[in-house]
Write a structure and sequence with these properties.
single chain, 348 residues, alpha/beta, 2 domains, eight-stranded parallel beta barrel
Length: 348
């Protein structure tokens, strides 16, 4: 039998601070300016799922509630007391979103510096496309694309490397990267768990059903939110058993990775539940097909407005990291959100 809590009844700003201080709300994801006053208590026993609404005070002392409200530690040196931006730097010639505009190292470095200046807290550098239908590339080719960019940017900025391969993880950390972002949740390469544990690097564990080449053919779940939650919980347990502390783990439910449009929608609707895992939460929906299906915008580069809507929804649910292409616009949207909900904040 499995148990889950989905925070609801969200409140913001001074109202949140007051209710949290009075014990009538919990700090969602450990963020002091976002509170939740209700939860949906979910129990799954085989195929049977029951749901019950409870007030926060009724569950406040439970292990799940405590996992939701505890402050998250810094991630790669980035404080997670508010939603932060992970800017995307694709060095692939076949990126779904930018068509290889930054495949040349010089162009990728210039782009990384530009989006850092626009407000990206982390630069996520990837050299292997994991779009639906894509094929893997060799470690040598991926390293050729990624390492010069990591070396150029890591001296000035917090850099993460987006890779599934242990050998490249090791080389990228040696080149100055601080964070590993693995779309396979350390399952693709048998050496990944031990490598990340040895490197003592923070890591993003993302859920994906199947390989990128085939993942969108027929994704199936009993209950997508609960199934994704359970898989991520299992990978967190494996990571901890391998020597990766929970404080160095962030999870990503993997929007668009082995999910239908409806399943992506259900995941976003229930995203606050993932705070129950007790780790940082990353949402990456920028420019994805899910956004195109909602907006009717088919070229990926035209999906900025829809991506901003998704980003703000994630921020309202206390998502700690947003992985985005449109950094400047996302930063400005978050700035307005914080100004309206943290009127006394010195960080605005």
């Amino acid at each position: 039998m499995s148990h889950y809590l989905r925070p609801l009844g969200l409140v913001y700003g001074p109202d949140a601070a007051r209710l949290i201080a009075d014990g009538k709300a919990g700090a969602l994801g450990g963020m002091a300016h976002i509170g939740f006053t209700l939860v949906e208590e979910i129990t799954r026993d085989g195929k049977s799922i029951t749901r019950k609404m409870r007030r926060f005070e009724e569950v406040a002392t439970s292990a799940l509630a405590q996992a939701i409200i505890k402050p998250r530690p810094d991630f790669g040196g980035v404080a997670l007391n508010k939603t932060r931006i992970m800017g995307i730097v694709n060095t692939t010639p076949d990126s779904f979103s930018d068509g290889g505009k930054f495949a040349a190292a010089e162009a990728a470095v210039a782009h990384g510096r530009m989006i850092a200046g626009q407000g990206a807290d982390i630069l996520d550098i990837g050299g292997e496309s994991t779009r639906p239908g894509s094929d893997p590339v060799s470690v040598e080719e991926e390293a050729k694309r990624v390492l010069p960019v990591v070396e150029a940017l890591a001296a000035e900025h917090v850099v993460s490397v987006d890779t599934r391969k242990a050998a490249l993880m090791r080389r990228a950390i040696s080149a100055g990267a601080k964070i590993i972002n693995d779309v396979s949740a350390l399952q693709f390469d048998p050496q990944s768990l031990a490598t990340v544990a040895e490197l003592k690097a923070p890591v993003v564990l993302m859920h994906a059903q199947g390989e990128p080449r085939t993942m969108q053919l027929q994704p199936k779940y009993d209950d997508v939110a609960l199934d994704v939650y359970d898989m991520l919980a299992a990978q967190i347990a494996k990571a901890e058993a391998a020597g990766i502390s929970r404080g160095r783990i962030c999870i990503d439910p993997g929007i668009g990775f082995g999910k239908t449009f409806k399943q992506n929608l259900e995941l976003m609707q229930q995203a606050t539940m993932f705070h129950g895992l007790g780790v940082a939460v990353l949402i990456g929906l920028s420019r994805k097909g899910y956004i195109g299906a909602l907006t009717g915008r088919h070229p990926a580069a035209t999906r900025m407005a829809g991506s901003l809507g998704g980003a703000l929804q994630a921020a309202m649910g206390a998502c700690h990291l947003l992985r985005v292409h449109d950094v400047c616009e996302t930063f400005e949207a978050l700035r307005v959100f914080r100004a309206q909900n943290e009127p006394n904040s010195a960080e605005i």
